[in-house]
Amino acid sequence: MSSHDISQPDDNLPHEQEKGGEVEAAGNPFADPGLPPHEHRQQDIDERAARRSERTIALLFTVSMLATVAFIASYVAFPVDKIIYVFPIGHISALNFSLGLTLGIALFTIGAGAVHWARTLMSDVEVADERHPIEAAPEVKAKVLEDFAAGAAESGFGRRKLARNTLFGALTLVPLAGLVLLRDLGPLPQDKLRHTKWAKGKRLMNYNTMLALRPEDIAVGSLTFAMPEGMKESDHDFQTQIAKAALMLVRLQPENIKDKRELDWSHDGIVAFSKICTHVGCPINLYEQQTHHVLCPCHQSTFDLSDGGRVIFGPAGHALPQLRIGVNKDGYLEAKGDFAEPVGPAFWERG
């Protein structure tokens, strides 16, 4: 940096450059021409035009509020499996289409209203603020605060109450769309996780053959997987329901059953327990015939099926839920009700 640069720090400020600007413009095509004369908008000189703009802004914010309400209503009204035809998109989920459309309108109209407010009602006077970088002097700071106060007054935020209040309404309602989506984090324990498809009188169906099971179909020492009568793999919610209702059957010698309730809930040594591990919900499928233990392959939790399905090793928090079973008049195994406690991880013990 030359001594001239150090001694003349204000050479590059706009008001210094403007000196002799007319001479520079004649010989320098890149000279700063300065700001053009300010042209007033219709809203600046006609209060009726300003009020029309305010009503337009309020209309956009109101549409945003209505779209947010429609978003929430669509979430409640449309089932997840409803399909509709929309030209030219084709077949699409009614829920996804309605949520995307209403949320898009809600966000777009807030943006459009804010842009229209800025372009028609807020001050559009261009001001060249001459100041050095780094820390400003106290008088400059005071000027900034003064300019901010003036800008706030010129924006009409305090005076244009209709536009301001509808903006607040739109901004308040839009976050509700995000809160509604939290509902998809999982089913509510009270009405979803506490109940399965098992009910009194439902027959036990072999998971592989889809045939109703009789006691003689289950040999001593064997492991059989079952599901409730009436479920089909073609059902839209089959995977959700089988994840809770999956059942494993083992036939023990009645004298080998240690737990009295387990004995009362069994039939001729056939015991029925949930197949879902009580640690993190993995399916159990490893059976040790000599010890009557079942092992979860995910984290090695081990349960004793001859002693109420209690945990004897691993991180599982509680015993496997047992299903009370019996035999109907036609000789088929049937459930006497649902599981006594929710299946899977022990969320319900923390109630």
From TrEMBL:
PROSITE patterns, per database record: RIESKE
Subcellular location: Cell membrane
Comp. bias intervals (Basic and acidic residues): 12-22, 37-47
InterPro entries according to UniProt: QcrA_N (IPR045603), Rieske_2Fe-2S (IPR017941), Rieske_2Fe-2S_sf (IPR036922), Rieske_Fe-S_prot (IPR014349), Rieske_Fe-S_prot_C (IPR005805)
Compositional bias per record (Polar residues), positions renumbered to this chain: 1-10
Region (Disordered): 1-47
Regions crossing the membrane: 57-78, 84-112, 162-182
Gene3D superfamilies from the UniProt entry: Rieske [2Fe-2S] iron-sulphur domain (2.102.10.10)
Protein name, as recorded: Cytochrome bc1 complex Rieske iron-sulfur subunit
Taxonomic lineage from the root: Bacteria, Bacillati, Actinomycetota, Actinomycetes, Kitasatosporales
